[in-house]
Amino acid sequence: MPFSDELKNATFPEGFAWGAATAAYQVEGGWNVDGKGPSIWDTFTHQKGKIFQDQTGDRACNSYELWEEDLKCIKQLGLSHYRLSFSWSRLLPEGTACNINKKGVAYYDRIINDLLTNKVTPMVTLNHFDLPQALEDKGGWKNEQIVDIFDEYAKFCFQTFGDRVKLWLTLNEPHVSANLGYEEGIFPPGLKEPGMSVYQVGHNMIKSHAKAWHSYNTIFRQEQKGLVSLALNSDWAEPFDPSSQDDINATDRYMAFMLGWFANPIFVDGDYPAIMKSQIKARSEKQGFVSSRLPEFTKEEQNMIKGSADFFALNYYTSRKVKYSKSPLKMQSFKTDKEAEGIIDPSWPVPGVAWLAVVPWGLRKLLEYIKKTCNDPKIYITENGFSLMGPASLEDNQRCQFYRETLQEILIAIHQDGVDVRGYFAWSLLDNFEWACGYSVRFGLFQVDFENPEFPRTMYKSGKEYATIISCNGFVNKKAT
């Protein structure tokens, strides 16, 4: 929908959270200094052929040594909020509180205290993909013991930092961790176990999140008065042929398997979407399995999981057309369970990464969908960004347009659709290590010169554009007010 005249001078709600996001492995570096233990990403990137040009996050943006430079970037943008993640293995090198790394605690204490001194609110993710390798050696997310281990880690963080941190995310994008790590094998631990581990891992992640939420709720909330959720990623999806019932049904399955997989248990009824359960069960029976490949929650677990989030944290990047594609029955993967194929619409511009079509209006539709299907939650958009293939020009006009159009769509969602959006976090503060793409893809509001040993940060034009929108709390012309 075009940005209507009546919204041209609209502003975001008072107290709207203006943020940018990073993740520990992607920016910190310092992978083996000051007592930090290895994470699964350290192990994975040190193997040949796993990452673009065998690049690693060993140094990344060197934020471990250059935090003050990051803080300058945050202040230049005028952010009210900053989302970061803790490196679990920097705090607890072996994954448990048996060994606490005091230098790791001091590092995050410094970041949190500096943010608060500068009137910036931290939002902290406890685990952004980088599980300690010591825990992976014991089965990682496939081992149900991880539920209690994660809860212990979460309680350690709440106890240590919760007097100052009031916005928590337990996990980042469990859908991505499970699918890419255990189905496709392109993220650590690099397993390809189609249609099997992916569901057990997701199951354990949901229970881990819920248990940590309850620990916060019963032990820490009364005194600390914070909020806890988890960051869920989702595309927006529409049928390739709106007149095809097969495509319509496939689109429903696509949304159930992507967003509903984790959102339905936590925000709706404590259980997986009915369409997901019936689809996997039917296929499992035909494949000769005694029971469904999708684990079941007990009634007690359903009661624990339902409602275990204080807000909805959404990571959105793109939208897709979905076409029905019946798969051979002998295949039993996460993808084929959906019997749906997501297709990038060729009319949508793709700036650099093949999967990332630029569709700002898809975010508005997804926000309205979440409002309707997830009991009208408070929503923070915890990641959203535009990729460029590096080295990228500082005059990133396309990305400027992207931020304007995206934030306009959010304004429409707030003012016309009644969606309760509380904040927006751009991905990312800095160009950084973009997982399997290494440093070939750039999402930053600040360019990082990775060839220079000092890793200088320089604001892109889009950073200036974002800073202007923040200063106006929208698109109001300050000179005219």
Tell me what the structure shows.
The active site is at 383 (nucleophile). Its EC number is 3.2.1.21, 3.2.1.45, 3.2.1.46. The chain contains 16 helices and 15 strands. The radius of gyration is 21 Å and the shape is globular. It has a single domain, classed as TIM Barrel, CATH 3.20.20. The two termini are 27 Å apart. It has 481 residues and is an alpha/beta fold. The chain is 40% helix and 15% strand.
CATH-level-4 superfamily name? Glycosidases
**What do we call the CATH topology?**
TIM Barrel
Strand adjacency order, main sheet: 1-2-3-4-5-7-10-12
Shape: globular
Radius of gyration over C-alpha positions, nearest whole angstrom? 21 Å
CATH architecture: Alpha-Beta Barrel
What is the helical fraction, as a range of percent? 40-55%
Strand proportion, as a percent range, falls in 5-15%
SSE blueprint and pairings:
Elements: E1 17-21, H1 24-27, H2 40-45, H3 67-77, E2 81-85, H4 88-91, H5 102-117, E3 121-127, H6 133-136, H7 146-161, E4 167-172, H8 174-182, H9 197-224, E5 227-233, E6 236-239, H10 245-269, H11 274-286, H12 299-305, E7 312-315, E8 319-324, H13 334-338, E9 340-343, H14 360-373, E10 379-383, E11 388-389, H15 397-415, E12 421-427, E13 441-442, E14 446-448, E15 457-459, H16 461-472
Parallel strand pairs: 1-2, 1-12, 2-3, 3-4, 4-5, 5-7, 6-8, 7-10, 10-12
Antiparallel strand pairs: 8-9, 11-13, 14-15
List its salient traits:
globular; 15% strand; Glyco_hydro_1_AS; 16 helices; 481 residues; alpha/beta; GH_1_N_CS; TIM Barrel; glycosidase; eight-stranded parallel beta barrel
